[in-house]
DNA sequence: CTATAGATAATCT
DNA sequence: GATTATCTATAGG
């Protein structure tokens, strides 16, 4: 199967299925100077419109409008007065679903990511949703960007991964759902 | 190793 | 006015 067809068929699904299947996939940003930064997706979370923890729960607003658009675009939001976090919109247009990218195993552009992350060790460059946005320089300016367009790349895993389901982090509602996925 | 306080401002009620 | 899909430093075991 053509790679882009495989990508689209995964993202067309609901956020929960997509979040599980995106584990092990490669996520990169192509920067202005041609540098690729990013790595292997090792942790995700699913958010749906019927989910009280989701930004889309109360319908479309200015902030979350990208979530209600077509699958395969980036939804970036600002939180806690200082952090950016990146999602991939999934499902059918209008459903208000997305997958939060929570962690990457760095593979590309490590020196650049190190500089942006205060020369922390490599296992602390992208091990959190706001940390990876800092390492890859993802901000609100990137929201609504089409994935596998000019800037962001998403490629299927090159091997199978065992995936664990866990409770989501940092939410106060709908906490019992096992909608966080991590590599075993 | 776990626990917790403080930073800091957009977003929504 | 309250909450927040977080991170870091620091304190304690």
Describe the structure.
It is a single chain. A hairpin with a 5-residue loop joins β1 (26-30) and β2 (36-47). The radius of gyration is 15 Å and the shape is globular. With 184 residues, it is of the alpha+beta class. The chain has four helices and eight strands, in the order ααβββββααβββ. The two termini are 27 Å apart. The chain has helices at residues 3-11, 15-21, 110-116, 129-136; strands at residues 26-30, 36-47, 74-79, 83-90, 97-108, 152-155, 163-166, 180-183. Helix content is 17%, strand content 30%. Strands 1, 2, 3, 4, 5, 6, 7 and 8 form an eight-stranded antiparallel beta sheet that branches. 39% of the residues are buried. The structure holds a DNA duplex (13 and 13 nucleotides).
The low-confidence parts are: none
Envelope shape: globular
Content-based structural category: alpha+beta
Work out the strand percent.
25-35%
Number of helices: 4
Q: Based on DSSP secondary structure assignment, what is the total number of beta strands?
A: 8
Whole-angstrom Rg: 15 Å
Give the topology string: H per helix, E per strand: HHEEEEEHHEEE
Bin the helical content: 10-25%
CA-CA gap between termini: 27 Å
Largest sheet: 8 strands, antiparallel
The overall average pLDDT, rounded, is 97
Topology:
Elements: H1 3-11, H2 15-21, E1 26-30, E2 36-47, E3 74-79, E4 83-90, E5 97-108, H3 110-116, H4 129-136, E6 152-155, E7 163-166, E8 180-183
Antiparallel strand pairs: 1-2, 1-6, 2-5, 2-8, 3-4, 4-5, 7-8
The chain binds a DNA duplex (13 and 13 nucleotides) through residues 45, 47, 53-55, 58, 61-63, 77-83, 85, 87, 100, 102, 128-131, 168-172.
């Amino acid at each position: 199967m053509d790679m882009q067809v495989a990508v689209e068929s995964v993202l067309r699904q609901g956020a929960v299925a997509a979040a599980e299947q995106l584990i092990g996939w490669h996520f990169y940003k192509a920067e202005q100077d041609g540098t690729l930064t990013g790595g292997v997706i090792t942790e995700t979370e699913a958010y749906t419109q019927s989910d009280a923890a989701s930004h889309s729960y109360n319908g479309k607003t200015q902030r979350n409008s990208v979530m209600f658009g077509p699958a395969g675009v980036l939804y970036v939001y600002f939180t806690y007065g200082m952090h950016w976090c990146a999602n991939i919109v999934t499902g059918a247009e209008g459903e208000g679903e997305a997958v939060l990218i929570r962690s990457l195993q760095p593979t590309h552009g490590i020196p650049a990511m190190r500089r942006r992350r205060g020369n922390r060790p490599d296992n602390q460059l992208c091990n959190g949703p706001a940390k990876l946005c800092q390492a890859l320089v993802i901000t609100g300016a990137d929201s609504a960007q089409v994935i596998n367009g000019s800037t962001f790349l998403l490629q299927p895993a090159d091997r199978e991964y065992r995936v664990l389901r866990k409770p989501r982090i940092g939410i106060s509602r709908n906490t019992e759902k096992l909608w966080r996925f991590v590599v075993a």
